[in-house]
Design brief:
Strand order of the largest sheet: 1-2-3-4-5-6-7
Distance between the termini: 23 Å
Order of helices and strands: HEEEEHEHHEHEEEEEHEHHHH
Largest sheet: 7 strands, mixed
Strand content: 15-25%
Helix content: 25-40%
Mean pLDDT: 95
């Protein structure tokens, strides 16, 4: 397992290729270094008669690699696939699992956002990505607050986080008997959190809700498996963005100007530091009275992100 969110120490992470991490008996994280843009984690819970999987990936190749890893552990087919939120790096491979007979479960807004967003390749934003064969496949089973799945006699509890945070539709998969938390992108380990499509204030509240669960093991959406100490790292970063936004807005700075002159300090070690300007766009909107999750100018925020990145497309190894 990893050490802290800011300094991943798992040697397998340093080797660069995807790997299985058995975090409890029959409970696996499929970890994908380097955890940056569009390179996410997946996982599954394997029982005698049932398998529940958590998320797919951004490309056909990466999703097929995950399915191969599942088959290396069990011949039981995936019965239910859980989407932690609607972003393409967690949902573009859904069809590969669904065509094998799995139902896909997610929050009601996850289904709505998958359908509204469609298959977007973000030309000009990221380095070239070979998505392969990608087909739109939203959740067919949706819920509002919670839903419990069963793998043999083991409960896999799905909980809506309660408010916009990373997105408007974040859920977690919680295994209370092993205190294992599949957190989706509510948690980044070693990477910069991103709340452009959700809420800064909601992300702070999400940390408190995750703490109340009392996890022993946290499988983040990006980065190596870690412990509950990652929640302190997440809160510290959100507080940093909150204070940066408050000071910069009072000084009349734009989000881009604020990001350019901000000393990241300890957070400079996190990957994808250019996400700061998108987070500031969201923080400014909330300071101006926008409710959590309200639509904002995404194009302007992403344009500023590219400028902060030196005018280059964002590095993506998906």
């Amino acid at each position: 397992m990893a050490g802290t969110a800011s300094r991943p120490t798992d040697p397998r992470w340093r080797q660069g290729g995807p790997y299985l991490d058995e975090v409890a008996a029959g409970v696996y994280a499929y970890v994908q270094p380097e955890g940056g843009w569009y390179v996410n984690n997946m996982g599954f819970v394997a029982g005698r008669d049932a398998v529940v999987a958590v998320d797919t990936s951004s490309t056909e190749r990466r999703t097929r690699g995950f399915l191969d890893a599942v088959r290396s552990v069990t011949a039981v087919p995936i019965g239910v696939l859980v989407n932690t939120h609607h972003h393409g790096d967690h949902t573009f491979g859904n069809w590969l699992v669904h065509e094998r007979g799995a139902a896909i479960a997610g929050h009601r807004r996850c289904r709505e956002e998958v359908l509204a967003t469609g298959i977007e390749h973000y030309e000009g934003v990221f380095d070239h990505v070979d998505h392969g064969d990608i087909r739109l496949c939203p959740p067919q089973v949706t819920f509002e607050d919670s839903l419990t799945l069963w793998v043999d006699d083991r409960a896999v509890e799905l909980h809506y986080i309660g408010a916009p945070a990373h997105t408007t539709n974040d859920i977690v998969a919680w295994l209370p008997d092993r205190r294992v938390l599949f957190a989706g992108d509510l948690v980044f380990c070693g990477g910069t959190p991103f709340v452009l499509m959700g809420s800064l204030s909601g992300a702070l509240r999400s940390v408190e809700r995750l703490r109340r669960l009392g996890p022993r093991v946290v499988v983040p959406g990006h980065g190596p498996v870690c412990g509950a100490n990652v929640l302190g790292d997440m809160e510290a970063y959100y507080r940093f963005v909150e204070e940066t936004a408050r000071r910069a807005r009072a000084a009349g700075l734009t989000p881009l100007a604020a990001a350019r002159e901000t000393d990241l300090g300890a957070f400079a070690e996190l990957s994808c530091p250019e996400r700061l300007v998108g987070n500031l766009h969201r923080a400014y909107a909330e300071l101006d009275g926008a409710p959590p999750g309200a639509p904002i100018d995404m194009a302007a925020a992403m344009r500023d992100t590219l400028i902060l990145n030196g005018g280059r497309p964002l590095r993506c190894s998906a």
